[in-house]
Structure formats: structure tokens, C-alpha cells
Amino acid sequence: VILQGILRVARDREGPDAIYFSRGHGEGSPSDMSRERGYSEMQTFLESRNLRTAMLEPDPNARIPEDAALVVVASPQVPFREQEIARLQTYLSERNGNLILLLDPVPGLSTSSPPAFGFRPLLKEWGLRCHDMLVHDPDSTKFDVFTGDYALRTYSNRNAHPVIAPLMKHGLPIYSGDCRPVEREPNPPEQVEATELIYSSRLSWGMNNWTSSAPPHERNDLLDLPGPVPVAAVAEKKLQPRYDVNVRGGKVAALGSSRLFVNRVLR
Length: 267
Fold this sequence. Notes:
alpha/beta, 3-stranded antiparallel β-sheet, single chain, 7-stranded mixed β-sheet
């Protein structure tokens, strides 16, 4: 449902038709058939909708190909360099590109690493904020007994965004692994419309010093993020029409867990 929704709002059927997956940072691959880290089922899903998948060359000086309808950054394990972020910013701003960020909480990152794998400046331009936290939920009923997957639901009272409208209509949860908070900036830039999509439970919270915390976990009211915690958000640039023609703006979707789209789940 989420993938279909993203494609529906991002893709121009007569425009570019390739989905590029970034590489060079330990990301998941569309050619990987493993259950927990692979995205071959996502590749099949995209190709069934007449979209090609390819790998994006990691050279930060190379222009993102003209046929790119969407760039996917799937579960990086190390930060992106500034030049690599700038390359994506150019694609988004100058070509009204589309980007999906699947950013898992990674425990082994150095404390000196740039926040959000280096994507914080890009996300800020799009009215989004991704915290280096782990969403903790003390309610064991929110976890699947067999897989350990965590149930996420929507708690927003606003009008449903097209990406999640079917989920809200039928009251359906989606299942994730460990996730990090992704929220809307309080004051997004002009012409940017940012929307939080999916939340953790009301009892949960975003743990700040989670890599050094041991159970039983207790919430720190000064440093932690109270629940329900947003874990997925989208942002869109609303451009002014030119000569009575609507101009399509770029879009960014940021999700605090990559497991939403791994092979085991999509199967």
C-alpha cells in the first residue's frame, strides 16, 4: 500500500521510468534475495509496474541519470559524504526529483558521525527531521509473537495523506523492525508541505542515549521524545503554476525503518 501510494504521487507516467538504488554505504540491494536484508521483492513490484531498477554509481561528481524517476537509499550502514548529499540535493531541487530514505537505527555508528547518516541538511530543506534515536515501546502486545515485528498505526486526526489513506480507512497496522523517529519540522520552509504519516504507540518514546541504555528502560523527559512518535513522513514542494500549467515539484519520503520493504515482509 505504501509503495503504491508513493509511486502514485511521485511518478509521471510519461516521464522518467527508472528507480535507482544507492550503493557504497552498505545499503540493501534490489538483487539481494535474502529474507531480512534483500529487496528483490521490491524490485519485482516495481518492474511489474513497468519501472526499471538500477544501481546508482557512488561517484558524487557524476550526474544522476536523466531517466531517474526515483532514488532509493535503503538502510545505509555508514554516513554519506557532503558531496554525495549535495548531488541528491541538486537532483531534488533542479530536476524536481523524488527520493525515498529508509534510515534504520544502527548501533555501531560513531558518536562523531554526522546525524541521520549525513542527511540532516537535506531533510531540513524539506521540512523534515530524523533523529538518531530508537523507538522503545514497553507494551509487549505491540510485537508479533513469532517474528518480533513491531505494529505501527496512524494516530493523526488530520485528513489522510494519499500514501496511507487505505490503511487509515480499514484501520490496518503495518509491521516494522527497530525504528527511529522521523518528524515534521515545526516551521517548514516556504512552499514545502511536510506530513507525518505513521506513528508508534502512545506508550512508546524515542530513546536518546539508546546505545548505552540497558533494560529496564525509563523515559528521560528532558532528552527523549514522547509518544506517539512519528516514524515516517513525506514532504513535497508546492511550486507556483506557470502559464496556467501546474508544475510538478520534487518529493521526499523518509522512513525510520527499512524492514517495511524487505523480502520477508513483501512476500
